[in-house]
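Encode chain A's predicted structure.
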Amino acid sequence: MVAEAHAGRAAHAGHGAAGSLLGSAPGWVLVVLVVGALVLPYLVGVARVRARGRRWSPWRTAAWATGAVLVGAALAPPLAEAAHAGAQGHTAQHLVLGVYAPLALVLGSPVRLLLGAGSRAVRARVAAVLQAPLVRVVSFPAVAALLDTGGLYLLHLTPLHALSQREPLVHALVLAHFLLAGALYAWAVAGPDPAPRRPGTATRVGVLVLAAGAHGYLAKLLYGRAAELPPGAVGSTADREQAAVLLSYGGDVGELLLATALFGGWYRLRGRRTRRGSRGAGVAAPRPVG
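Encoded structure for chain A:
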């Protein structure tokens, strides 16, 4: 059985190597198009904001560009092929596209940029969208966490995983969900952009802790039942165990970065409020370190 498994993987690898020379070019074209579609409009918006005499932090631009590159890396042929070949590649693609890229994109403050670069009509539309009942519901941190983490449970504990491996359209929809749900969760918990009725820091910290616990439990469940979960997944049991380990530690890093963004935003907001209060009292406020 072991020899047959090794032979099957070798045959699959040989077939993939032969096909990658023909199929990688369209994949790289897709990467360039996706990264360009994310970066170029953003740079146009930055130019418009600066043309109006307003400042725009280069750190925000760098964060958005980093997120765009991460999206491209997740869709690039090497990682895309690894995601179809085994559980570790699939998990790595999920972490890049569903955890790290969304946080970087959110830290680029795209909504604030759109408000600063757009016309009065555009700003009115953005404000209307932010106040829409559906946006208010899904942007509440607990709901956003449910959509994000709940999607992971649905994918790994149901036949959806195997279906996504067989059907390209389903796979594309799963990847889109990873990116959008991850961005929604990062925005709701730690986004610098305006959000409708965002709760206080304590509530968001509580949601982050609960979501991290649910994420960690799923990783342990997948490790302990690697022989059967996800249902119908490709790869050996050892491959699935390593994928569960990667999901655990990779998720921990993502949650640590999200917590850093959350407390960093809280610190900056507190500093601005302190300076405003000191100016109102006629006292010069001490400048925060860094």
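The chain has one domain: 2-275.
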